[in-house]
Amino acid sequence: MNYLLLTGFSFIVGTVVGLTGIGGASLITPMLIFVFNVPAAIAVGSDIVAATMMKVVAGISHWRQETVDLQVVKWLAFGSVPGALLGVTILRWILSLGWSLDSFLLPAIGSMILFVTIAGLIQLSIATFAPKLSLPSFPTFDLETIDGKIKTVIIGFILGCMVGLTSVSSGSLFALVLMTFFKLDSRKLVGTDIIQAAILLSFTSLGHLGLGTVDWHIVIPIWIGSVPGVLLGSKLCQLAPQRALRYLIFAILLTVSWKLIHSA
């Protein structure tokens, strides 16, 4: 493997993430599979470990700025952490049966990326072409009630399982959930999403380390490239045309998801 090239591509992906806010796993995992011919299971495990450090570093910053809703983080984590560990357990079970992880993971990752991309496209299109469109409002989860806590745990569990299986959507789908069901303001939305992702990915990383699906020779170049890329992208994001960039990335993700689904 050309590790210098991996670092360079990771820098580009990190810059895109910093510019657009679109999740790195949706780009890095397919990049590892198609560009560097990494087996799907190793790509998922290595990507999760690589993403964990970035989320933890960003999470510490938001914690210090007090831009985190700890109640939401707590109840989401009660569901997402067991869900993620179940996802890793399913992978272990597939391995124990002697089945090909690639034949399962490639369409699973592709389907997740497709789902996240379509959700993002719908949200972006409404904001672009019909900003005054009045859509039916979803109920807000009240974490002071048992019902609100149960619903939060269930959603966290489902999304956590998806992350454990595919590495995709630790931020994107959770951000949609936070916007839809908790009505957080923009500052707390970002901080809460990052902190919950850091907790979720930390436990998921332990699961993948135990599963043996982490290659440190892949993780370290991703760290070296993506972290400065994210910092650069964050600096440039105010200068770049956000909507045009997002539409371009979504178009790329649609192509990637289609290729993943039909690669098995």
* Count of runs of 4 or more consecutive helical residues: 10
Low confidence ranges: none
Question: Which secondary-structure class do the elements indicate?
Answer: mainly alpha
Report the major sheet.
Answer: none
The total of beta strands comes to 0
Number of domains: 1
Give the strand content: under 5%
* Basic shape: globular
Membrane topology: Multi-pass membrane protein
Family: Belongs to the 4-toluene sulfonate uptake permease (TSUP) (TC 2.A.102) family.
Transmembrane segments: 6-28, 40-63, 75-95, 104-130, 150-182, 218-237, 244-261
Subcellular location: Cell membrane; Membrane
Structure description:
The protein has 264 residues and is mainly α. The protein has one domain. Helix content is 79%, strand content 0%. It has ten helices and no strands. It is globular. The chain starts with a helix and ends with a helix. The model has no long low-confidence stretch (mean pLDDT 83).
Summarize the structure.
This protein has 264 residues and is an all-alpha fold. The chain has helices at residues 3-20, 25-34, 40-65, 70-96, 101-129, 146-166, 172-182, 186-211, 216-236, 242-261.
Which key terms come to mind for this protein?
transmembrane helix; single chain; globular; Probable membrane transporter protein; mainly alpha; membrane; 0% strand; TM_pro_TauE-like; transmembrane; 264 residues
